[in-house]
Amino acid sequence: MKNIENLMKKATELKAEGLVEGQISEELNVSGETVTWLLTHAEKTSTSPGPKDISVDWSAIGRSAFRLNHISEAMTDIIYETLDANESSVDVVVGIALSGLPIASMVANDLAAELAVYTPSKQMIAQENKRAKGNLSSNFSDVQDKDCIIVDDVVTSGQTLEEAVEYLDEHGARINAIAVLIDKKGTEEIAGVPVVSLLKVMRVN
Question: I need a surface site. Which of 11, 100, 163, 165 has the fewest CB within 10 A?
Fold first, then answer.
């Protein structure tokens, strides 16, 4: 219960700092539904069960460039395996902002590929009133007519990656794989694109 209380406290603090629920979801690596539950129950002494979710804290990796580098090398290795199996290639690594970017940049370096940055709608301030859309940053590579892979840190519901696949497809990319550090959804593909992960988390009940 202490861990849940800590999550509630952290969610409340992030909300007070001005983050929208999508950003809080990204920071805590939980679903949007879980963030809503954490915020609405933070002020209550409620015994109602929370959403079926798993909070992931990979900050022990994220705070060390040395560890990130080795994790990225492991992800690059599993990407090579997937690309070889599908006889695919990669011109651009698309990193999902915010937490997927450090891994994506290192994977792009390992693959000698260009780097693109996709900011999903959940990161937008206007997201909560449904006006925001995700976009590619113009400061990085474009994806038109290029073979791409998407790199992110954690798959929760898969909604962000579905959104990214749709956006990239609309902008002329050929998406050959999605690579993530941790897959909480336990899926083999998202929007028809194969998913590979270093860790897969699956509920048994």
Answer: 163
Asked whether residue 150 carries a pLDDT value surpassing 50, the answer given is yes
How far apart, in whole angstroms, are the C-alpha atoms of residue 168 and residue 45?
44
The amino acid at residue 2 is: K
79 domain residue, yes or no: yes
Per-residue confidence (pLDDT) for residue 180, from 0 to 100: 97
Q: Is it true that the peptide bond before 98 is cis, omega within 30 degrees of 0?
A: yes
pLDDT digits (tens, 9 = 90+) for 23-58: 787 788 787 788 888 788 766 655 566 677 888 889
* CB neighbour list of residue 93: distance below 8 Å, 6 or more residues apart: 104, 105, 107, 108, 111, 113, 114, 115, 116, 148, 149, 150, 151
Measured CA to CA in angstroms, residue 128 lies from 6, 20, 62, 186 at distances of: 24, 7, 28, 27
Q: How many domains does the chain have?
A: 2
* Spatial CA neighbour of 149 closest among 59, 62, 78: 78
Domain range for 25: 2-41
pTM metric for this prediction: 0.80
pLDDT of 131 reads 61
Residue 24 token pair: 């809080």
Residue 67's alpha-carbon distances to 70, 106, 110, 197, in angstroms, are 5, 11, 15, 17
Asked if the structure places residue 187 within a domain, the reply is: yes
Question: Quick one: average pLDDT of 190-197?
Answer: 96
State mean pLDDT over 3-22.
81
Measured CA to CA, the distance from residue 32 to residue 51 in angstroms comes to: 10
